[in-house]
Structure prediction request, 686 residues.
Amino acid sequence: MPERATLIDRLHVVQRGELTPARTWAYRLLAVLGALVTGGLLLLFLGLNPFSVYATMLRGALGSAGMQKETIKLMIPLCLATLGVALAFKMRFWNIGGEGQICAGAIAASYFAYFHNGLPSWLLLIVMAVAAILAGGLWGLIPAYFKTRFGTNETLFTLMLNYIVMYFITYLREGPWRNPEGGFAAMPRFTKQARLPEVPIPGVGNVHIGWIVMLVMVVALFIYLRHTKQGYELTVVGENEMTARYAGMPVKKIVMRTMFISAGICGLVGMLQVSGPDRQLTDAVANGRGFTAVSVAWLARLSPGGILIVSFLFSVLQKGCSMMQTEYRIPASMSDILQGVILFFVLGSEFFIRYRIALRKEARA
Amino acid sequence: MSFFDQLIAFLYAAILASVPLLYGTLGEILIEKSGNLNLGVEGMMYLGAITGFLAAFLMESALMALLFAFLAGMAGAALYAFITVTLKANQNVTGLTLTIFGTGVANFIGETLKENYPAGTVVVADHVKRALLPLNMGALSDIPVAGRLLFSHSILTYLVVLIAIGMSLYLNRTRHGLNLRSVGENPAAADAVGINVSRYKYIHILLGGGICGLGGAYISLVTAVGNWQPNIVGGQGWIALALVIFSSWSPLRAVLGALIFGALSVLRLYIPKEVIDIPGAIFSMLPFVVTCLVLVISSIRMRRENQQPAGCGINYFREER
Prediction:
C-alpha cells in the first residue's frame, strides 16, 4: 500500500516554551467561559433562561450585605484549607487528606471547648487554635513520616486517614460526647467563651474573626514561599528531589516540616469552623472542603493570591447555587455539576498552555 | 435462631455487601494497571447507579439498566481518559473532579425525578427488580448451607466473580494483558517495543469505568431494591479504592478482600451486644484502618510485585523521556 500523509498522521504534539502570563490567563479565562457556556446549555436543556439563572446566582451570592456575609463565611474555610494543601502540593506531596486534618483540628479544639470552658475566653480560644494546629499537623505527619521512611504512597494514605477521623467524630457524637439532653445523637453547643468574636468587614457587617486569619495567612504564605529559606527549600524538593539532595538539603526533614505546616493550617480550619459558624462539633465540619481545596489549589496554580480569588469564586458559585435552588427549584447539586464542568474545562485547557499541536511537513514513515 | 443459622445469615449478608465493592475494585485495578490512578471511582459508580436506575425505571428492562449503567461508567471514564491521557492533565485532580461531577449529576437527576413524579412512584417496576434480585434456583438453592451461600444470589454477583476470574487470566496469561502491565509499569519501554500506549490506556480506563458503573447499578437496584435515595453510593467508591491496595492489584485477592470488607460492614448487626460492644462508627472505620496498615506494611516489605504499577499518576509524553 502506498504511504500517504493523511492530516491525522501529520499532526503531532510538541511542548511549548514559556507562555507569557497574560496569554496563560487568557487561555484559562477562555476555559471558564467554555464551562459557563456548557452549563448554560444544560440550563437551556432544562427549559431555563441561562442568563437569568446566572444573574440570580450572582445576586444570591453578592446581592445584599447578608448574602455577601454568607459567601464570605463559605470562603474562609475553603481558602484556608486550600492554602494548606497547596503548600504540600508545591512540594509534590499529594495531601488529599485536608478533609481529615480539618476534622482532627476540630476534634482537638472541641475537646477544650467542651471540657475546659472555665478558662477566660481569649485564653480558651488561643488554646483551641493551638490544639487544632497541633492535632491537624500531627495527623498529617503520619503519612509524611511513612512516605519519607518507607516511600509509602501518600495519595492513598492521606485519603484513607480522612475516613478514620471522620468516623471518629461520628463515634464521639454517638457515644462519649453525645449531648445527654438532645433527643437524637448530637453534640452540645459551645458555651459563649468558646465562640469566635465577630469583627466587622466594611460594607458587609460582622463576620467571625476567621476572615482576618484568612487574609493574614494569604500574605504569610506568600512571604513564606517567596522570601524564606524554608519556602525555597520546599519548592526545590517539589521541582526535583535529586537536585535538592545534591544541594545537600535535608529532604526528609523538609517534607515532614512542610507537611506539618500544611496539615496544621487545615487543622486550624477545623477550629475556626466549630467555634465560628457551627458553634458545635458536627460530622459535617469539613463538608467536602478538603477535597474541593485540591481542585481550588490546582486552579489557582498554587499561588496564594490566586487561591484567594479562586476560593472566592467557588464560594460565589456554591452560595449562588443555593439561591438557584430556592428560586428555580433546581437541586443544589447543580453546584457540584458546574464545579465539575469548570474544572474539566480548566484542566483540559492546561494542555494548550503547555503544548501546541504542530503540523509535520511529511508523515512518519 | 441457632448460632449456625446466624453464621450462615452473616456470611450471606457479607456477600451481598461485598458485590458493589468488588465491582469498583476490579474496575479500578484495570485502570491502575494501565498506569492511571483514577480517584473517580465513587463518581463513576454514581453515574452507573443513576443511569441504571433511570433505564430500569423508564424502560422497564433489567438488561437495558445494566447496559446503560455500564455505558455511563464508561462515559465518565472517557472524560477522565481524554483529560489525562490525551490532554495530559493531573490525574489526581481530574479523578477527584470526576467524583464531584458524578455525585452531582446523580443527585441532581435523582432529585429532579422526585420533583416531577408523585411521591412514592419513583420506584422500579417489580418484574425488573426481580430479574436482578437474588435468584431462587429451585433444588440447587435448597441444598443446606451451599444452597444459601452459593446458589441464591443476584445475577450481578455471579457476573462479578466471572469478571474477577477473567481479569486474572487476562492480566497474567494473555499477551494483551502483559502488554497492559508493561504500559502501567513503564510506558516508555512499552512504547519502544511498539505497544500503542494511548490505545491501551483508553481501552482499559473505559472498560474499568464500565465495571465501576455496574457496581453503581447494583447499589441502586439490588442494595436499595430499586428505590432511589440521595447520596446512595455513600463512600463505597472510596472503600473500593482502599480495596485495590488491600488486594495488592490482584483481581483474585480482590474477591477475598471484598468479602472481608463486606463482612466488616455487616458484622455489627450479627454480633450480640453481650459478646462485644463496639460502637458502630468504630466498625465503619475498620476497613480504612486495615487499609492503612496494609499500605504501610506493603511499603515496608517493599515487595515489587505487590506495589502499585510504577507508572501510576504520571502522564506519559513521548518527547519527555
